[in-house]
């Protein structure tokens, strides 16, 4: 009896060990293979983060049509993605890897000053965007963006605005809007929260006067009547979203929380083409189209020179805003 | 009783043989991943997400329910047996649990934990079913000032864990605060104590600190005295997991107290399950002291396992409520599950129950089923797991070392984490060697940043006006309770001391040496002798009593 239970225990330990090894193997995977047989997507964020979700949707899309035989997601969390960026920058010439990147990383690079930048990798493509919205609690006296801006101009310090962590799209957009309406961005009272959820409760509990948040995170609260959206950061009104843009209300501020992919530094022209082809293929899959809709992402496919120009502009604009915010 | 009917309908669609198979698989996988140090349920859910994409929604939810709670059940297993809690929610339960294991009552500790997790989860989930909208209201009553009051409250409520030696306790608290401070400061973006290494920008993960301090520190401690202490060669275990009637009578109130701590914390997105588990642990410790319970802190008290475990799972239960009703992921696990729900066109939030009511009730029913399956599973496993301790020590501790390293590496594939782990392990060894308590370090790591960030947020919003800290009913109530508790305990202390000094005057006479005799005899807390006063006196008194304890139960300390 006791020896049997001992065997059971041993089996249990062995099983646990195997699971552990499998996890680590999944995390450390790599090797010399082509992207068609084995592809690794690095999500420079913890499981549960936005980039992790993006990476896993991509993984599923690639799997769904057998575009690559074996796709794995590796999480390298930390410092707004710059830890992942730093690691990826070391993977000279790896043809079987892509890293998830986006606007948040551009901001984090500016903020962290950690010696790595987007120049150290090969940005490939921009795939999906969403936008930030300025919201106030339903019982707030501010009905329109104009009301809010007037009050904000009078008392920048007393008009606290909550949002994501420093350097996030929420933060950068707050700085940008402030600058455009003639408030010194460094005078704004921005309360940083580590996640959208925390920022949301701070708005619902009336801690801060207003909140800057990803529109999708607050959409339901707006519909349920708990929050009121004053403006959204998209260029044009989004289909099915009844929120006016900053631009149409006379504030020259427009910003997308874009997500895309980058290749390792020093990949050959051929490998780069292959990776782009994979992206091009999985973008067409039903799963990806479905994913865009489910996550309310706007398809913003952009590559080549166009993407490069966009990225350059994005970086220089972020530099300016970060400087203006006094960080 | 609308909810009841809807819930029964949910059970109807969830309870099919094939779904039961899924929940079993989910529970097994969740437990397995939870058992590994460092790998919590968030990792388990993330890895399983792709698998569930191919299932129909009901099957997927039921599997998630198994994984979600399974990870929490598993976390405590490793903590109790090997002192390597799988994630931060299991730390508080490990203190007494591991003592019980060392005392040969591992199976019983595991069973207590399993039932505690079940009770906590069950009550919390039931509350979610009936009172979800109310819970949501509660969440929005908490702003930075309230959080800060809560953190202060928790600090003082848990302070009993530093009471053995005030100086060493405060020292340990300080170490914890320093460790917690590493990284980029959220509100200002200032970089603190990172030695210029970007890998440290996000701070040191609490899992790394826990595993280093508890697991690796323990391994080094054992290795350091392996041939000197024959009693430590092997832990005995009588394989009985059955809880006797007396055990249940002891544990039941503790389970309920723990649940009461856990329920409110699931909804508010701060600190996760650590704060309530520590609060539950602190309360039990305090009660044990009042009761004169000698098991607590020596051979391991069943209550000290029961309460934190119930608190941990109660938090998880109401966290699910917050996720569903508010769309508010209060933990990483919840964030991934949010993504999973969206996969099935279910958008958690204020409109969820209207939009996809049927799925929600199935999910809630799944949670109940998952809990039942898990408690059955874990009661059976308790005996098997406890057999782990029969493995000869040198293999066992080598295994712990490997698993700790593996688990920590798996969190973020960072080699720096391994070095940090090693350094903290050495720190844990030194602290054990010089009898520093370890619990305050972990408490400081959990509560320190919470208190700091929230205080600064509150003051930033109010532009430096301190009155904001006491401007709401919640804060006023919390501080009032705190002041009341302090006054009462001070009065008690005073009366106690007066009795003591009266007895001392009548007996052995006064003098600085009288203290050690007195405290040794009472067996309770070291009470300062009549001569000197204040905190220095308490520290002095703890010196001799500390060494007395040392010979008495070497190695049973944390």
TrEMBL record, chain A:
Signal peptide start-end: 1-26
InterPro entries: BUG, Bug_dom1
CDD domains listed in its UniProt record: PBP2_Bug_TTT
UniProt key word Signal: yes
Keyword annotations of the record: Signal
Recorded family membership: Belongs to the UPF0065 (bug) family.
PANTHER family assigned: TRICARBOXYLATE-BINDING PROTEIN, UPF0065 PROTEIN YFLP
Protein name: C4-dicarboxylate ABC transporter substrate-binding protein
Lineage of origin: Bacteria, Bacillati, Actinomycetota, Actinomycetes, Micrococcales
From TrEMBL, chain B:
Annotated keywords: Membrane, Transmembrane, Transmembrane helix
Transmembrane segments: 20-39, 46-71, 109-132, 138-158, 165-184, 204-224, 322-341, 361-383, 418-434, 441-459, 471-491
InterPro entries attached to this UniProt entry: DUF112_TM (IPR002823)
Bias (Gly residues): 506-524
Lineage: superkingdom: Bacteria
DUF112 domain boundaries: 20-442
Biased composition (Basic and acidic residues): 549-558
Region feature (Disordered): 502-558
Protein name per its UniProtKB record: DUF112 domain-containing protein
């Amino acid at each position: 009896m006791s020896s049997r239970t001992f065997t059971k225990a041993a089996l249990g330990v062995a099983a646990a060990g195997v699971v552990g090894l499998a996890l680590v193997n999944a995390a450390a995977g790599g090797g010399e293979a082509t992207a068609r047989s084995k592809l690794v997507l690095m999500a420079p964020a913890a499981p549960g983060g936005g980039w992790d979700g993006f990476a896993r949707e991509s993984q599923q899309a690639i799997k769904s049509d057998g575009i690559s035989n074996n796709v794995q997601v590796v999480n390298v969390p930390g410092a707004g993605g710059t830890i992942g960026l730093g690691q990826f920058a070391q993977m000279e010439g790896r043809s079987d890897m892509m890293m998830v990147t986006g606007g948040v990383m551009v901001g984090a690079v500016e903020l962290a000053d950690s010696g790595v930048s987007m120049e150290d990798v090969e940005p490939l493509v921009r795939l999906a965007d969403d936008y930030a919205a300025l919201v106030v609690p339903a019982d707030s006296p501010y009905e329109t963006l104009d009301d809010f801006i007037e009050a904000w101009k009078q008392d920048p310090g007393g008009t606290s605005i909550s949002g994501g962590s420093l350097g996030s799209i929420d933060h950068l957009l707050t700085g940008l809007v402030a600058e455009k309406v003639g408030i010194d961005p460094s005078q704004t009272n921005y309360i940083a929260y580590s996640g959208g959820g925390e920022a949301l409760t701070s708005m619902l509990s009336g801690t801060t006067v207003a909140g800057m948040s990803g529109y999708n995170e607050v959409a339901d609260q707006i519909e349920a009547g708990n929050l009121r959206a004053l403006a959204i950061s998209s260029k044009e009104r989004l289909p099915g979203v009844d929120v006016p843009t900053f631009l149409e209300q006379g504030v020259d501020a427009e910003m997308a929380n874009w997500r895309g992919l980058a290749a390792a530094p020093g990949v050959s022209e051929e490998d780069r083409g292959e990776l782009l082809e994979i992206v091009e293929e999985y973008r067409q899959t039903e799963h990806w189209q479905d994913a865009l809709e489910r996550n309310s992402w706007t398809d913003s496919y952009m590559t080549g020179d166009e993407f490069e120009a966009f990225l350059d502009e994005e970086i220089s604009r972020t530099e300016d805003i970060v400087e203006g915010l006094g960080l | 009783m609308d909810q009841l009917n809807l819930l029964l309908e949910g059970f109807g669609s969830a309870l099919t043989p094939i779904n039961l198979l899924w929940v079993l698989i989910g529970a097994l996988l969740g437990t397995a991943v939870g058992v590994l140090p460092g790998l919590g349920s968030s990792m388990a859910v993330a890895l399983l997400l792709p698998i569930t994409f191919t299932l129909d929604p009901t099957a997927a939810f039921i599997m998630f329910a198994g994984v979600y709670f399974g990870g929490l059940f598993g976390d405590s297993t490793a903590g109790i047996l090997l002192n390597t809690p799988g994630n931060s929610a299991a730390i508080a339960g490990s203190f007494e649990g591991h003592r019980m294991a060392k005392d040969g009552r591992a199976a019983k500790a595991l069973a207590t934990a399993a039932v505690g997790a079940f009770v906590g989860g069950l009550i919390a989930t039931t509350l979610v079913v009936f009172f979800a909208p109310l819970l949501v209201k509660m969440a929005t009553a908490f702003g930075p000032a309230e959080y800060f009051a809560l953190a202060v409250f928790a600090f003082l409520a848990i302070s009993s864990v530093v009471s053995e030696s005030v100086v060493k306790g405060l020292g340990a608290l300080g170490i914890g605060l320093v460790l917690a401070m590493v990284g980029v400061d959220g509100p200002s973006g200032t970089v603190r104590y990172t030695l210029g290494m970007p890998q440290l920008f996000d701070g040191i993960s609490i899992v790394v600190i826990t595993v280093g301090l508890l697991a690796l520190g323990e391994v080094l401690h054992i290795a350091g005295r392996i041939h000197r202490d024959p009693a430590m060669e092997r832990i005995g275990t009588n394989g009985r997991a059955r809880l006797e009637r007396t055990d249940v009578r002891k544990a039941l109130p503790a389970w309920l107290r723990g649940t009461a701590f856990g329920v409110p914390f699931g909804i508010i997105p701060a600190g996760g399950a650590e704060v309530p588990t520590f609060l539950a642990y602190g309360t039990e410790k305090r009660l044990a002291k009042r009761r004169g319970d000698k098991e607590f802190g020596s051979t391991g008290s069943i209550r000290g396992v029961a309460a934190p475990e119930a608190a941990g799972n109660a938090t998880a239960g109401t966290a699910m409520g917050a996720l569903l009703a508010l769309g508010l992921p209060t933990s990483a696990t919840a964030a991934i599950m949010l993504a999973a729900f969206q996969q099935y066109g279910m958008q958690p939030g204020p409109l969820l129950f209207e939009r996809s009511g049927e799925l929600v009730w199935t999910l809630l029913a799944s949670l109940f089923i998952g809990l039942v399956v898990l408690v059955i599973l874990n009661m059976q496993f308790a005996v098997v797991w406890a057999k782990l301790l029969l493995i000869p020590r040198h293999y066992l501790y080598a295994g712990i070392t490997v698993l700790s390293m593996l688990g920590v590496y798996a969190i973020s594939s960072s080699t720096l984490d391994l070095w940090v782990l090693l350094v903290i392990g050495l720190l844990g060894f030194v602290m054990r060697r010089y009898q520093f308590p370890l619990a305050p370090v972990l408490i400081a790591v959990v509560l320190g940043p919470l208190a700091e960030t929230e205080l600064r947020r509150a003051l930033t919003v109010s532009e430096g006006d301190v009155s904001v800290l006491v401007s709401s009913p919640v804060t006023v109530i919390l501080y009032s309770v705190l002041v009341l508790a302090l006054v009462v305990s001070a009065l008690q202390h005073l009366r106690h001391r007066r009795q003591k000094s009266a007895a001392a005057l009548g007996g052995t006479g006064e003098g600085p040496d009288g203290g050690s005799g007195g405290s040794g005899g009472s067996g309770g807390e070291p009470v300062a002798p009549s001569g000197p006063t204040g905190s220095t006196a308490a520290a002095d008194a703890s010196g001799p009593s500390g060494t007395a304890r040392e010979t008495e139960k070497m190695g049973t300390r944390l």
